[in-house]
Amino acid sequence: MSHIVLSILINSKHDLEDAKLWVKSHGYSIRKTHQTKKWTRFRQHTTKYAKDRGYDTIRTAKLGKNKDMEIIIAYKKEDEPEIKLGGSIIDLARTVIYGRKTYAPAHQKIIESYGENTITSIKVGRKPLSSVLNAVLNVVSLGIYKKWIQRSQYDDLFHLFALITLNNGKTILIEKRASIDMVVIKNNYKPPEYTEFAQVLIEHPDIQFKTLLDNTEKLQGKNYFIYNAETNNCQKFISDMLQSNNLLTPELNTFINQDVSSLFEKLKYSKGLINATTGLGTTIDILSKGGVR
To answer: Considering the entire predicted model, what is its pTM?
Structure first.
């Protein structure tokens, strides 16, 4: 069901900079911000914008353990029966904010189109997070991140992904962010600067793309579509994808998985907006986008 997010409201008791960081890290705009005694409103679109495009029904859903967040969503009237049959406006809001529990329509289309194609190559990539995200991470952790890096064996925070090439010549980039993400890349694809790759040895080149995904889902169970910054992040997804298909070697395991447990031990006492909504700190939410080297 298509929808437009009109506004995100966060209880004003939360620090404004924390709120801005949370909204921005989830892909929404912070340009239009208005504060009242109770709420900080982050306007995404006007009601007129939505109605001009046929999104004529507007609903508000309360989210968070303490109802510290509201999300205002516009959708088309004809979609209302789908909401009543398949869930509620709160389910839709949770999907918008927290991620899916199924494949997104675009991803399902990729699986339908290429699921039966066999895999000829898999390359695991890891790319360092931007200097901006590293700076934000250090700020919201009150300097803990930088000190931890300096005392550890690591240099950078990384995001893990895989490039899967099929027998029809198509290559699919797959990764774990707030949920599973995949895209068919173009022939002129250039990886981000400083990206490192490790080649996966495929001894039995008869693994279908959908089989690769299905085996990963069997191993991860209910955790397949969701993430947890410490235990179910991007490196865990790529590692389990290879392990469940008998492709994980000790060398690949070392390349993919880095120990951040001591960092999480220090960060678990940090307080931020997400502790009141999803149980995750703002800093930990950023960590879900990478491992470390």
So the answer is: 0.59
